[in-house]
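F.,

This is the one I mentioned.
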């Protein structure tokens, strides 16, 4: 959404994490918003349990939003 509450379609949005990510990654790290201004990514856990906040930023405007704490309760599986 822009500052007046309207959807921002066809915009590049970059996902980042605040602080130490512990190997966490996004697939994709940048996505294009749909007609409703929505974007989606998958958060892949790193090697350590932790709590992070995900930040999504519209690249062309620097409008961003931050999630509440996302709990990563397990690391990579042992094989």
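My design for it:
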């Amino acid at each position: 959404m822009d500052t007046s509450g309207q959807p921002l379609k066809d915009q590049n949005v970059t996902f980042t994490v605040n602080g130490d990510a512990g190997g966490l990654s996004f697939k994709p790290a940048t996505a294009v918003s749909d007609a409703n201004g929505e974007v989606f990514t998958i958060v892949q856990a790193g090697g350590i349990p932790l709590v992070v906040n995900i930040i999504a930023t519209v690249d062309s405007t620097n409008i961003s939003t931050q999630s509440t704490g996302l709990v990563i309760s397990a690391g990579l599986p042992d094989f």
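The two ends are 43 Å apart (CA to CA).

Talk soon.
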